[in-house]
Amino acid sequence: MKRTFRADLASGMEAVAFAMSICAQVVKIGNQRVKFKFPFWAFSVPAGSRHGAEWIDAAGFKKGSDRVLYFIQKPGGLAYFQGIKRQIISEGRALEKSAQKLRPQFSSLSDIQLISAYKKFMKQYSWAYGLGILTFLYESILSDRLMISLLKRDPRAIRHLPVLMQSPYVSFMILSEEALARIRLVRNSAKRESLIKKYSHDFFYIRTNYWQAPEADRKFILERIQEPALKKEVNHNNFRRIKLQPWESAVINLLKISEAIHDKRKQINIIGSYIMFRFLDEAVKRRRLKLNLAKRAFWQEYPDLLLRPEKILSRLKTRSAFSVGYSKGSVFYLDYIAITDRPKKNNPDQIIGTPASGGIYRGTVCKVMAKPDFKRFKEGNILVAAMTRPDFLPIMKKAGAIVTDEGGLTCHAAIISRELGLPCIIGTKIATKALQNGDFVEVNANHGVVKILKNNNYVQ
Predict the structure, then answer these.
(1) For residues 121 and 104, what is the distance between their CA atoms, to the nearest angstrom?
(2) Beta 440-444 vs 360-367: how paired, if at all?
(3) Are 35 and 77 in contact (CB under 8 A)?
(4) What is the spatial distance between Cα 362 and Cα 358, in angstroms, rounded to a whole number?
(5) Domain ranges of the chain
(6) pTM of structure
(7) Which residue of 69, 132, 422, 456 has the fewest C-beta atoms within 10 A of its own C-beta?
(8) Architecture of the structural domain at 350-458
(9) Looking at residue 149, what DSSP letter applies?
């Protein structure tokens, strides 16, 4: 009898089974490491698609967020999250060192050594990644609750957000942009080549996602430095501080701590995925496998892929769809779509989310669901996506506004939008379903509302 689950659609992204399947184990480990537990998490990809769906128990997440909100208002509550921040920064650095050490070694390891190295790395990766997933439980919900409360008292509350969220922490994405800016400014060819080499070493993982992990090679770097620099458009001196209620202050302090946890989680994720793809490449080369077929393997099947490919290949040929996840203390890896959406009432003409960067913009929608969609994104389009990742940055710089299904005030889309001074609404849950390519819409990021327009009049 097939296992099936009902859940709530949270987001989506392009992914292959090999890179994504580890996340089920990551959730299990995360629940062992932190006070606040995931009730349910899953990811599924239908046959013939590169784009999958992420699933949660929305009611369970809300209860978890309520517990977090209560906890951070108690003595020592925020200190607990500060401890997680320090720990994940330390573990993230250690994982990066392990990855740098592994990168030149793959071809020189025997099959047994390769499997041993794989198991060791995956243990370290999933342990560090598991600590960081805590923020996914509460970020979006508490961000939305905070902005609703602020906007009730002050319709211009979004103007205060850059000051409220200001933090000394610098994201690895911003550090990457600063490194590219230094290359862009150098005219001496020898010095430029030295900086290109350093960038390739320091940010080897920057192009990675759950679908692929191309190298940050010289060609990529030269293309990136042709783009406009990432310039901070917002002058924090123009904003006054708003009087906060005690719980609002606690949430803002939590979110500022969470910015670092979220950012290190993302960096750990893409470093880990990059190394996973290099392990996969080595198995494909040694056993002369088809890469697209090998990508269908679940992460724990890697030893079979390398040592006993005949045992697993027949199974992979029939695994055209998959579901992986965590439920009631255990993980599952299934060769079919096991998740169905709980029914919801949606008004497609009134899309509401959390304002993350202020402004009002009218323009044409361009949905970006996977990397191939990048090529049709035009200057001034409104970027509509399930979520954004570091590899979205070139099109984010061209966008007039950004709208996402997922995210809180410290997600990638929110941080980059505030850096660029772009109107941004996050956590709409339905934007990629309700909006279509070519729709003309108004993004009111002062109040978190997207309105579909028709002949410059609102659709009634």
Answers:
(1) 15
(2) antiparallel
(3) no
(4) 13
(5) 5-147+248-341, 350-458
(6) 0.92
(7) 456
(8) 3-Layer(bba) Sandwich (3.50)
(9) H
